[in-house]
Structures are given as structure tokens and as C-alpha cells.
Specification:
874 residues; alpha/beta; seven-stranded mixed β-sheet; six-stranded mixed β-sheet; binds adenosine-5'-diphosphate
């Protein structure tokens, strides 16, 4: 940056602030604008598509590149810059410009980055916005996650060889907006490779002692035992550093971050990112939310509930009691349709409590946010009444956790009018009677205005000008307007201020006297209102933990109500979740596909899996027959049950599963430069390394990415390993197009064959979609190809080849010998080339013999004899 001795004091101030934040675009408040200068201006003008101007530098000429945005629209611009990957530092005027002696004091009040963008317009109400920090302590990775927009805060540790994989999975599933790491410290490459924004910060903030102190201070706690974080130095280090980062960028005390949970890996049913994708849990096959399990089940009516349901599906439980508690609650709510309806209706009025209280804590809340909070909290007593009769222990304990928060509600109710403006700086939102000074000021303002109105009457009478008007504008304040035709009647004590098209504007000393009183009062009123609001905001923020606790209880109730609603509407059944081994579903359905097929067209299917008789199912059958649907629905039912949801089935016994692995349908990692086959093998390797006897594995067409025999061999070996390795033997569904694999069932205990049924009718195929025992006799590939519209000659040709293959009529070269085969050029025999399958040695002898003939010396008789000999030898 070129600095010149002639910089103005304001530019000097700018340069100082910029020096503190070299990595951020600095927005510098000047009057009604936030200005950017130098490099920042060039970059921002391009990114925001706003006009670049220049600010005169002074006598030595040249200009400083500059651009600006109006202060009242700044949030939108900040959001756009951050979404483009920039950090933004906001440098505000921190004293009243009118009272400043000389230069107004300015300070950076906030730094906004992707992980700290909390403006509602840039957040999805149904998704969290996590900021992550990662540190390595010996062989252990410490990870902390914080959603600044809600205050949700957690930490975890990943140790050992799988640690890095776990971290990579976590990043892929939770998609943090930003990852904070210690600067100049080596960390696992998966962090950089994730493509997520990484922010290096001072490494010392991760130091054990300082991180611990920061964390304790933030949590207002004396020790970390209560949070399960004692003896978790890596987690504490990551969490403490994250708090430090937020405090230094937000310059707020984060009153909504007063608790942290330790996330134990083994506390949840683990779902890796590939499984998440292949089961279409958060996203449907087209990528959006549409067609996903989440979209299907999300009947929640509040944002907090919607986010919680998402969290439940991402981390289903593994402990039997809490699962049964959820299921019992869903059951009761499912049966009590009227209570459920009333309850769900009531909580529709609940706004995003978590984010409202976060805004209060971050200092970004306006009067309307506090009123929203009040209105939302007012629903709580009604919820308590509506759910009073319910017996399910989980419902009862959640209702007991609801706090009416009367103190908070009445503080807001007392101070703020029911329909306030969005922004506090607009004023006019404080009720009368709240504050003596404010009331007095308002009296002055009102009576001043009254006096001016009376003055208008008086002047009209005095001058005899009936159209005389007292008006107000920002430039002149109060003035008297007289139309042209009446100007002759203006008294001498009027001072002319301005001539306008229709007349002239005047002021009088009396008018100015009252104006001063009124304007002084009005200005002070806004100031006073802001003071009152700020006090209230801080008081509300101080109650954040109580508000959050109630918000979370309400969210859980909302989710339970939504699951009950779906259970009732979609005719789901309560699964019997147990600690044993048997998975047994009668008439299971796919929750999403069944809703997308026309009424009653979905064919339900049974399934049994256990460690003894039916541990691995080899599933064969035609493409489009319904194999992947069956695989997915089985995995989804396990997941739903452990999340606490009813399942789409007539009966379901579901054993607790520790991990679900699903590889169903095409992988699209090809874009990242891996071949399909490579990706498939990596994923398979991961399963073979990590599955346990309590896992559920569903694999679709393993080995399809390579040559037939390779593929078959790999599929066979994988299935065999899953079925026989005593360390593992997870419950497995193995769909394959290699019919040879069905032989595995003959020799391997626990391996059974099933196929999806289909019938041939004339030349067509009819999918029955029923899963039945035994191997399938045919694959109907050609019929499916016909359905898909392959040209008829190609279909005919394929039929002929298939027929030959089935008769095992292969040539020695391994190609089907089909009459009418177009002969490929390289297959045309050369004269002295061994015909396919012929004895190479004999051909060699013939060739030698012929080559040895000396044609010049050959008599006609010899030639004939030789020819006969050759013929004989052939
Ligand atoms: P595959 O994996 O065997 O190729 P899919 O499971 O993808 O077959 O199913 C193909 C289509 O058949 C699905 O898109 C769905 O519309 C339909 N389908 C699958 N299973 C069923 C079922 N049980 N009942 C009705 N339709 C089904």
C-alpha cells in the first residue's frame, strides 16, 4: 500500500485499522456510507458490482480507489462478500459524530467470515451453520463445533488410525462453513482437501492452559467435569481456541454459548458420508432436499424442530432406553390425533427461538426480534396445558423442562410496543410509562408540536392568509409556507428563507425557539430508547441458557409430534427395537418411493436377517426390478427406528445397529478424478475394515466397474469375506448381477439367495417387485434394454448372441459362435496363419515345407505329388 505523508487524519485512521486486519476487506464508516479503499475497493467493486470512484489524495495528485455502500443496506453486502469467500472487518464510528471533538473515534467492531455469518437472510432456517476447529495432540485429533447462530456447541476427540477418517467423515456430513486451525502447524491433509474455507489463527490460543481458561471463562464454570471434558485435552484445546476466535472477531460476550457437550463417537449409529448420500437421507437423487428421507419425514412446524429432526436423522441413537422413550412418545402422540393437532397448531406461532436469543446475545437483535421472542415464549403455557394428559415419560419430562419465562416475557412486554419497527435506531418502539425521562421528552416533543399547530392557527388569523401552513423538512426544520398570491400579506417579522415554484418559505424567531425544543427532544428520545433497548437486550441475553433449554424441549416435542404425524398419515408401525440379533420386517416399504408410486402400487416386502440362518442375502434379478429400493428401505428402516421414528412396515423387529454402510447406485466421485471402480473399491475396503457383527451392510452391484471376470471374482471374494470372517459377519444385503454368485449359498452357512420376481409376457417383462427366496433364473436384461428403447436390430442381435451363449457355443477364442456373425477383420485368416484352434505346430510344418520348395526345379510330376502330400497333411 502506498502511503503518503499527506494523508488526511481520517485516512490515517483507516490505514491503522486496515493494518490490524490485513486479511479482511475493511468497511470504514463515513457518514451514511461504509467506504472501502485501495486494493479492497478494487476487489469489492468487482465482487459486488458497484461503482469504483476515487478519493482525492491531496496536493500531489492521483486518487485513492474507493467504493462504498449505504450503511442501512450493509448486511446484504457483507453477506455477498462473505459468500464469495472474503472476510469482512467492520469499522464503525464508536462515538457520536456530533459530540466528537475533532476526528470521530472509529474501531473494528466485528469481523465476519463464512463461519460467523449470522444474518438471517444468509442462513437456511432448517440447517445449522457450523464453525469447526481442529487441533492435533499427539495421535489424537481434537475437534470443536459451534453454531454461532444458535449457540450449539460440542467437542469430540478422534484417536488412532481411524481418527483422520472420522474427521473427514464429520466434515463431509456436517459441512462446516469454516475451519479454524492453528497457524503453521501440520494437520491431516483431508482438511485442506475438503475444499472448505480454512482460517489459520494464532497457535498459542490452542495451548492447553490458555484454551482451558478461555473455555471455563466462557462457560462461567469452575471445572470441565460437568461437560464430560475433563481428561479430554485435545477437545478442550479445540473448543477453547474456537471461543477465543469468536470473541476476538465478534467483540460480543456470546451469552448464548454457556454449555458444551462432548460427543462420544460410540453414542450414535454411525453413518458415513457415502451411506448418507446413497440412502438419500438429506438429499434426493437430484441433489436437492426433494426426494430425501428428511423431506419425507419433516412435518415439523418450527425451524428449531426442523433442525433437530435433521440432527436426529444424522445421529440416530444406539442406547435402547432413549430409543424406546422416543418411540413411546411418538406412539402416544400418534394415537391422540386431536391433542396432536392442537399442539402442532399452537407451536406454529413459535419463531426461531434459538436464533432470536443468539441475536440478542450477539447484539444484532432489533425490537422486532425481542417481540418475536416474547410471542414465541407466550405459547409455552398453552403447550403445557395441551400436553398435560399425556403419559409417555419423554413427553412428560420435556414438558417439565419447559420454562414459562414469565420474567423475560413481561420485561419485553412492558418495554416494547406490539408492532415495533425492525431497527432500534428508528425509535418509537418503547411504551409510555417505562422511563420517566423518556416520558418527559415525549411530552416536550408532543406539546411542542401542539404549540406549533396552535401557532399555525394564530398566524392564519393574524395575517388573514387561510392557506398559510407550517411545515417541516430536514434542511430548514420548521418553516411557514405562503403561496404566491398571498405574498403581499406577509408581516414584516417573517424572514424569507427560500423561494419555491408556488410561493415562498419563511421562518420566525418564535418558530425556531420551539423547533429547537422539539428537535432536541426528538433526538434525545431516540438516544434514550436505544439505551433502554440495549439494557433490555442484555437482560434477555443473560437468560439465554433458560430460553435455550425451553427452545430445545419445544423442538423435541415438535419433532416427536411430526414423527407421530407421519406415522399416522403414512401408516407406519412402531418398531420393536431390541438388543438381540434378529432383524425381521413384514411388509416393509420404502418411505420415499412408496409416496412417489401411485396409490397402493408399491409392493411391500419382507426381510429377515440374523447371525445364523440368514446373515448374508444374495439378491439377484433384473435391472429395474426393485433391488436397490429393497436394499435402501431395509437400511432406512433401521435408521428411522433408531432415530425414534415409526417405520413403513406392518411389523418390524429391529436390532440395535452400530453402523450402516450403504453402497447403492452409481457413485459420482468421478468428477474428482477417480475412476468409478477405484472409488467403489476404496469404499468397499472401508467397509471390510470397519464393519462389525452389529453393522448393517447393503451393497449393490459390487465389481460392476471392471471386466466381467475381475468383477465377479471381487464380488465373490467380498461376499465370502463378509459371510465367513468370524471377526465381522455383519448383516448384509448383497445385490448382484453375477448369477454365479448364487452358488456361494450352497457352500456357505448363513448365505441365502433371494431374487426379485419378474415375468415374461410375450416379448415384454413384467416386474412383480416381490422379493422371493431362491436364485433368479434369468436377468431379463434384453427385455429391459427393449423397454429403454434400444433399436430393434440391436435387440434382435443381442437375442441371438444370448441364445448362443446360453447354448455355450463359444468359439475357441471365447467369442460366441453365432451364425451370421459379422467377421471382424483381424479374425480373417491369413494364408499361412494358424486357423483359430488349429495345431500351431502343424501350421508351422506346412509353412516350412512350402517355403522350402524350389519352384524353378520342380517338374510338373513332382509338383502334383507334393500337392497331394500337402493336402494329406492338412
Ligand atoms: P433395481 O435396483 O433392481 O434396478 P430399483 O430398485 O431401482 O431397481 O427400482 C426401479 C423402479 O421400480 C423404482 O424407481 C421404483 O419406481 C420401482 N419400484 C421398486 N421397488 C418397488 C416396489 N416394491 N413396488 C413398486 N415399485 C417399485
Amino acid at each position: 500500500m502506498h502511503m503518503s505523508a499527506s494523508v488526511t487524519p481520517a485516512m490515517r485512521q483507516y490505514l491503522d485499522a486496515k493494518q490490524q486486519h490485513p486479511d479482511a476487506i475493511l468497511l470504514f464508516r463515513m457518514g451514511d456510507f461504509y467506504e472501502m479503499f485501495y486494493e479492497d475497493a478494487l476487489v469489492a467493486a468487482r465482487a459486488l458490482d458497484i461503482t469504483l470512484t476515487s478519493r482525492a489524495k491531496g496536493a500531489n495528485g492521483g486518487g485513492i480507489p474507493m467504493c462504498g455502500v449505504p450503511f442501512h443496506a450493509v448486511d446484504g453486502y457483507i453477506g455477498r462478500l462473505v459468500k464469495k469467500g472474503f472476510r469482512v472487518a467492520i469499522c464503525d464510528q464508536v462515538e457520536d459524530p456530533r459530540k466528537a471533538k475533532g476526528l470521530v473515534k472509529r474501531e473494528v467492531v466485528r469481523v465476519v467470515s463464512p463461519g460467523t455469518l449470522t444474518d438471517a437472510s444468509h442462513l437456511d432456517a432448517r440447517e445449522p451453520a457450523f464453525l469447526m476447529s481442529v487441533v492435533a495432540r499427539g495421535g489424537t485429533l481434537g475437534v470443536a463445533l459451534l453454531d454461532l447462530s444458535t449457540g450449539e456447541f460440542s467437542a469430540a476427540e478422534y484417536a488412532g488410525a481411524d481418527g483422520v477418517q472420522s474427521l473427514a467423515d464429520e466434515m463431509a456430513v456436517l459441512k462446516p462453513r469454516e475451519i479454524v486451525v492453528p497457524a503453521e502447524v501440520e494437520l491431516p491433509p483431508c482438511i485442506g482437501a475438503s475444499g472448505l474455507p480454512v482460517t489459520p489463527i494464532d497457535a498459542w490460543t490452542f495451548d492447553d492452559e490458555s484454551a482451558r481458561r478461555t473455555l471455563l471463562d466462557q462457560l462461567r464454570a469452575g471445572g470441565l467435569e460437568g461437560f464430560g471434558l475433563d481428561r479430554r485435552p485435545a477437545a478442550v484445546s479445540a473448543a477453547g481456541a474456537l471461543v477465543h476466535y469468536l470473541r476476538s472477531t465478534q467483540k460480543a460476550d456470546l451469552a448464548h454459548v454457556r454449555a458444551i457437550t462432548y460427543r462420544q463417537h460410540a453414542d450414535a449409529l454411525l453413518i458415513d458420508p457415502t451411506t448418507l448420500k446413497h440412502l438419500e437421507i438429506l438429499e434426493g437423487s437430484e441433489g436437492g432436499r426433494d426426494g430425501s428421507l428428511l423431506a419425507e419425514l419433516d412435518a415439523t412446524v418450527t425451524s428449531v424442530g426442523s433442525r433437530l429432526l435433521r440432527a436426529w436423522l444424522l445421529r440416530p441413537l444406539v442406547a435402547i432406553e432413549p430409543i424406546r422413550d422416543r418411540l413411546d412418545a411418538v406412539e402416544e402422540l400418534a394415537f391422540r390425533a386431536t391433542d396432536r393437532g392442537k399442539f402442532r397448531d399452537a407451536i406454529k406461532a413459535v419463531q426461531d427461538l434459538e436464533r432470536l436469543v443468539a441475536r440478542a446475545a450477539l447484539g444484532t437483535a432489533g425490537p422486532r426480534d425481542l417481540v418475536g421472542l416474547k410471542v414465541s415464549l407466550a405459547v409455552i403455557p398453552r403447550v403445557r396445558t395441551l400436553l398435560a394428559d399425556l403419559q409417555a415419560p419423554l413427553v412428560r419430562s420435556l414438558v417439565a423442562e419447559l420454562d414459562d419465562l414469565l420474567d423475560v416475557r413481561s420485561a419485553i412486554e412492558t418495554a416494547i410496543v406490539d408492532e415495533p419497527p425492525v431497527l432500534a435506531r428508528d425509535g418509537g418502539f418503547t411504551r409510555d410509562g417505562v422511563d420517566k425521562e423518556l416520558d418527559d421528552l415525549r411530552t416536550i416533543s408532543r406539546s411542542g408540536k401542539q404549540i406549533i399547530a396552535e401557532m399555525e392557527e394564530r398566524e392564519r388569523a393574524r395575517t388573514g392568509i387561510a392557506s398559510l401552513k407550517v411545515r417541516f423538512n430536514r434542511v430548514f426544520g420548521y418553516y411557514i409556507e405562503i403561496s404566491k398570491s398571498n405574498l403581499h400579506a406577509v408581516p414584516p417579522d417573517y424572514h424569507r428563507k427560500q423561494t419555491i415554484a408556488g410561493g415562498e418559505r419563511f421562518i420566525t424567531p418564535a418558530l425556531k425557539e420551539y423547533e429547537e425544543k422539539i428537535l432536541g427532544a426528538d433526538e434525545r428520545i431516540v438516544e434514550r430508547e436505544l439505551e433502554i433497548f440495549e439494557k433490555l437486550r442484555i437482560a434477555v441475553a443473560a437468560e439465554a441458557p433458560r430460553i435455550q433449554a425451553s427452545a430445545r424441549a419445544l423442538a423435541s416435542l415438535d419433532v416427536l409430534g411430526a414423527l407421530a404425524e407421519m406415522a399416522a398419515v403414512n401408516n407406519y408401525t412402531k418398531p420393536h427395537v431390541h438388543d438381540g440379533d434378529e432383524l425381521a420386517v413384514v411388509d416393509g416399504r420404502h418411505p420415499v418411493v412408496e409416496r412417489r408410486t401411485s396409490a397402493d402400487a408399491f409392493v411391500p416386502n419382507d426381510i429377515t436377517l440374523n447371525a445364523t440362518t440368514c446373515q448374508l442375502i444374495i439378491l439377484t434379478g433384473p435391472n429395474m426390478g426393485g433391488k436397490s429400493t429393497y436394499l435402501r428401505q431395509t437400511a432406512l428402516m433401521c435408521l428411522m427406528a433408531q432415530a425414534g421414528s415409526f417405520v413403513p412396515a406392518r411389523e418390524a423387529k429391529i436390532p440395535i445397529t452400530d453402523r450402516i454402510f450403504a453402497r447403492v447406485g452409481a457413485s459420482d466421485n468421478i468428477a474428482k478424478g477417480h475412476s468409478t471402480f477405484m472409488v467403489e473399491m476404496q469404499e468397499t475396503a472401508n467397509i471390510l475394515h470397519t464393519a462389525t457383527s452389529r453393522s448393517l451392510v447393503v451393497l449393490d452391484e459390487i465389481g460392476r466397474g471392471t471386466a466381467t471376470f475381475d468383477g465377479l471374482s471381487i464380488a465373490w471374494a467380498v461376499a465370502e469375506h463378509l459371510a465367513t470372517n468370524p471377526e465381522m459377519r455383519p448383516k448384509t444385503l448383497f445385490a448382484t448381477h453375477y448369477h454365479e454368485l448364487t452358488d456361494l449359498a450352497d457352500a456357505t452357512p448363513g448365505v441365502v439367495n433371494f431374487h426379485v420376481s419378474a415375468r415374461e409376457w410375450k416379448d415384454d417383462i413384467i416386474f412383480l417387485r416381490k422379493i422371493v427366496p431362491g436364485r433368479s433364473d434369468r436377468s431379463y436384461g434384453i427385455q429391459v434394454a427393449r423397454l429403454a428403447g434400444l433399436p430393434l436390430p440391436v435387440i434382435e442381435r443381442a437375442r441371438a448372441i444370448l441364445a448362443a451363449l446360453e447354448r455355450d457355443e463359444l468359439t475357441r477364442g471365447g467369442r460366441p459362435s453365432v451364425s451370421g456373425t459379422p467377421v471382424e477383420p483381424q479374425q480373417q485368416m491369413g494364408l499361412f496363419q494358424a486357423p483359430p484352434g488349429e495345431d500351431v505346430e502343424k501350421a508351422g510344418r506346412l509353412r516350412e515345407k512350402i517355403a522350402g520348395i524350389d519352384v524353378d526345379r520342380l517338374t510338373p510330376m513332382d509338383a502334383l505329388t507334393l500337392l497331394a502330400e500337402l493336402k494329406k497333411e492338412l
